[in-house]
């Protein structure tokens, strides 16, 4: 069957890019006017240079770990490449993510240069999707851990509870849906139901035995809802396989649908390699922790009116990283800073008021490190011209 080629609307892409840039500029302007971003906050005295250098080294290691995670996912998808090539592609990805405004993003660049090496577009797309999914879920997991470490503060603050309830609910829903969905694909629906239903019953029992605490009153109803959704996810997961309803009825009706079907099939390959998934999750946890740790050392090196402690950074950073998921230019410029500023102020009870400057320091060094991708881009361009 022949399908029409999808049309590219350049005006819409330009308009979207312009709106994103305007939002980023507006957020940065607001942070500067409010005093959250000041040049003196970015100043580092000589006696604090060790903290700055430690933060830079940890950040560089954390950024480099992305290459090892991507390598494992490519191997699982059936498109293996060596570590050096993964490091090269990762540096190019960071350059596009940090320095390029508009619809061109790091993932598009990563896809393009990986396919040049592997000549396997569907498998590469699946690896990138899996990378994003696992990375996002890892941030939700660390967000939940940050809330647990500051649980007494969360319970006593209505503002923090308004953040914690939906975040913890979403965290539990995502991880439980992922776990039950994978179990349903590997062992079948009944195996997933044998685990999912007792979890739902346990949450309901807890809600009736403890009616006074914050958990029972505000969080348990959210957990009951996400548990039901997770069980539903386990029931429909097998329908995405090639003999399932979704694949047969939705993915074969157009060229785009066919491409999506191929991508979903490639993505589902990971159900056959749980060890690679487990290794990727562990690599992701290490990477995210290193990024949070680098943010902490940057905060200790800067000339701030109040220095946050590690618990406050650990609470605020994962949720601020998640804010970057919102499609925005230059890796969420302005969005991450505003989110980190707000969260750090809430968790410190207003004591720390320069969170945007802390995040901006990390962004500056991330951008500088991302420039390492330029030589690889130039080398690839020279190869293309020569050929």
Outline the structure in words.
The protein starts with 9 loop residues before the first helix and ends with a helix. Residues 1-8 have low confidence and may be disordered. It has one domain (47-372). The chain has 387 residues and is mainly α. The chain contains 17 helices and no strands. Helix 2 (49-77) crosses helix 3, helix 2 runs antiparallel to helix 12 and helix 15 runs antiparallel to helix 16. It is 78% helix and 0% strand. It has helices at 10-33, 49-77, 83-99, 106-118, 121-149, 151-156, 158-187, 189-209, 214-236, 245-250, 255-267, 274-301, 310-323, 329-332, 335-347, 355-370, 373-386.
State the end-to-end distance.
34 Å
Which geometry do the CA atoms define? globular
The percent range for strand residues is under 5%
How many structural units, i.e. domains?
Answer: 1
Helical stretch count? 17
Written as H for each helix and E for each strand, in order along the chain, the element string is HHHHHHHHHHHHHHHHH
Radius of gyration: 22 Å
Average pLDDT reading: 80
Q: Regions with pLDDT < 50 over 5+ consecutive residues?
A: 1-8
Largest sheet: none
How many strand segments? 0
Helix content: over 70%
Q: Looking at the chains present, what oligomeric state does this protein adopt?
A: single chain
Structural class: mainly alpha
Membrane topology: Multi-pass membrane protein
InterPro entries: L-PG_synthase/AglD
Keywords: Cell membrane, Membrane, Transmembrane, Transmembrane helix
Subcellular location: Cell membrane
């Amino acid at each position: 069957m022949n399908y029409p080629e999808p049309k590219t609307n350049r005006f819409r892409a330009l308009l979207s890019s312009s709106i994103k840039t305007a939002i980023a500029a507006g957020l940065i302007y607001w942070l500067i006017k409010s005093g959250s971003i000041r040049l003196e906050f970015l100043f580092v005295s000589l006696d604090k240079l060790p903290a700055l250098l430690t933060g830079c080294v940890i950040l560089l290691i954390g950024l480099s770990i992305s290459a090892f995670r991507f390598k494992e996912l490519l191997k699982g998808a059936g498109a293996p490449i060596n570590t050096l090539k993964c490091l090269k592609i990762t540096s190019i990805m960071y350059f596009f993510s940090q320095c390029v405004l508009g619809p061109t993003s790091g993932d598009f660049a990563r896809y393009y240069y990986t396919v040049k090496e592997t000549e396997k577009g569907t498998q590469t797309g699946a690896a990138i999707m899996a990378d994003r999914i696992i990375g996002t879920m890892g941030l939700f997991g660390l967000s939940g851990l940050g809330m647990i470490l500051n649980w007494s503060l969360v319970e006593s603050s209505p503002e923090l509870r308004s953040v914690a309830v939906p975040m913890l609910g979403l965290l539990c829903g995502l991880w439980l849906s992922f776990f039950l969905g994978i179990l349903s694909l590997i062992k079948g629906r009944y195996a997933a139901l044998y685990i999912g239903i007792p979890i739902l019953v346990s949450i309901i029992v807890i809600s009736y035995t403890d009616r006074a605490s914050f958990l029972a009153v505000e969080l348990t109803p959210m957990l009951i809802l996400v548990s039901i959704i997770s069980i539903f996810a386990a029931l429909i997961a097998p329908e995405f396989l090639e003999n399932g309803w979704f694949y047969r009825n939705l993915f074969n009706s157009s060229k785009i649908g066919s491409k999506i079907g191929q991508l979903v099939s490639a993505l589902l390959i990971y159900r056959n390699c749980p060890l690679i998934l487990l290794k990727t999750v562990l690599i992701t946890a290490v990477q995210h922790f290193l990024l949070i740790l680098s943010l902490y050392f940057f905060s200790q090196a800067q000339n701030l009116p109040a220095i946050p402690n590690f618990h406050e950074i650990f609470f605020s950073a994962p949720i601020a990283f998640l804010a970057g998921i919102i499609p925005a230019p230059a890796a969420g410029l302005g969005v991450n800073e505003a989110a980190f500023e707000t969260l750090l102020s809430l968790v410190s009870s207003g004591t720390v008021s320069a969170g945007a400057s802390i995040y901006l320091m990390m962004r500056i060094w991330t951008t500088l490190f991302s420039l390492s991708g330029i030589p690889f881009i130039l080398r690839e361009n020279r190869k293309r011209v020569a050929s």
